[in-house]
Specification:
The structure holds 2 protein chains of 2 kinds. Chain A contains 11 helices and 9 strands. By secondary structure, chain A is of the alpha/beta class. In chain A, helix 2 links the parallel strand 1 and strand 2. Chain B is globular, with a radius of gyration of 16 Å. A 5-stranded antiparallel sheet of chain B has the order 2-3-1-4-5, covered by helices on one side. In chain B, strands 6-7-8-9 form a 4-stranded antiparallel sheet, with helices on one face. By secondary structure, chain B is mostly beta strands. In chain B, 11% of the residues lie in helices and 35% in strands. The chains are: A alpha/beta, B mainly beta. At the A-B interface, helix 4 and helix 7 of A face loops of B.
Amino acid sequence: MRQDHLITATQLSRDDIEAVLDRARAVADDPAAYADRHAGRVLALCFFEPSTRTRMSFDSAAKRLGMNTIDMGDVDSSSVSKGESLSDTVRVIEGYADALVLRHPSEGAATLAGERVDVPVVNAGDGAGQHPSQTLLDLHTIREDHGLDDLTIGIMGDLKYGRTVHSLAAALTEFDANQHFISPESLRLPRSVRFDLHETGAQIREHEELEPVLDELDVLYVTRIQKERFPDENEYHRVAGEYRIDAETLDSAADDLTVMHPLPRVDEIAPDVDETDHARYFEQAHNGIPVRMALLDTLLENASPDGDEGTEVDR
Amino acid sequence: MSEHELRVSKIRDGTVIDHVEAGQALNVLAILGIDGSEGFGVSVGMNVPSDRLGRKDIVKVEDRELSQSEVDVLSLIAPEATINIVRDFEVVEKNRVTRPDGVTGVLSCPNRNCITNADEPIETRFDVVADGVRCDYCATILRADIAEHIDV
């Protein structure tokens, strides 16, 4: 991957993805070899909206590479509350850090940040847009179980606003994957995502119910149907109930079906699924560490004037 | 000049935008920022018979030529348009519009949550795709309603 920033999954080729995932596997196999790889470097965590998992995952990944992290803290107590633009904020932080992880409530915020600064920018979620580092860890999890070709995946839940879905769907077009999208009519994939999928000739089908396709799936990727998207709470409860899975739901699934979720879940996956061999969502979250280590390592390597300033690692 | 074009008065100097899709004439004026208060002489023909389009609109603007960004946006809502430059009642230049690869700073993004609609020092940028335009920042696609989002 010879790129400065990771803004959207659509920028990733198959080779890019496989290179990061291969490196993630190497990191997972021998984390000690990477412990001081980027000692003395600083990662800025710029989270303009609340996040626990993604922020901690990047923080942990950076520290395991020997980096220090700086954090702009709660938006309400930062310069943002004084009206400073995102453009100015990232320009200032660029001088403090060697790379920048950005989460922002507006779509396109990471693209803007990437245009304003020279240090690598990682999009950690921009509104309902994209969340490409999540996609890399999703793909890592899928690859470990099934490989990434000859794959049939069902993606279910809020497909309209689910940024992890948008990124994952785009990245899967680089592989031989059949994608089934399962959602209420009101939460179908947005036009722009469907446009990209059709442009690539991707094999996609859209459904309102899981049952007709469940037994075909290698992977079922579930996302939260967000209550706040519904003006009528009764409508939310009616819809959400239809997209809830439990252990009994999975009786008709393939024995090796992998159930994933970007977390946090609310009640779309019942706790009894945790006890089945299908559940992989906690492992998926843990995969964020080696994958984000591999991603930061790759981007910092690309950003170095001579291609690699890090401590030499025998790979 | 054809009989159809004579339905609206000839101009001495200026621009004739011909072969505009029927119903788009007022949007053409919007692109040009013309609301009548500028003092230009403007003639508009709507639903004029056309061999090529069946029905078409024509816009004639006196003492005014178009900038490239105006032509670029015009091409999005009137891809068949021809732009005739008129001097001393004669057409001295006749050009078909061509769709650009992208347009910058001339359309606003309809996605209220797009970063271009936040208070940032930023120009909008849209890629031209098969049957519309697409925001470079949030990827929102605009098709039939392009004219409603013209900023020029």
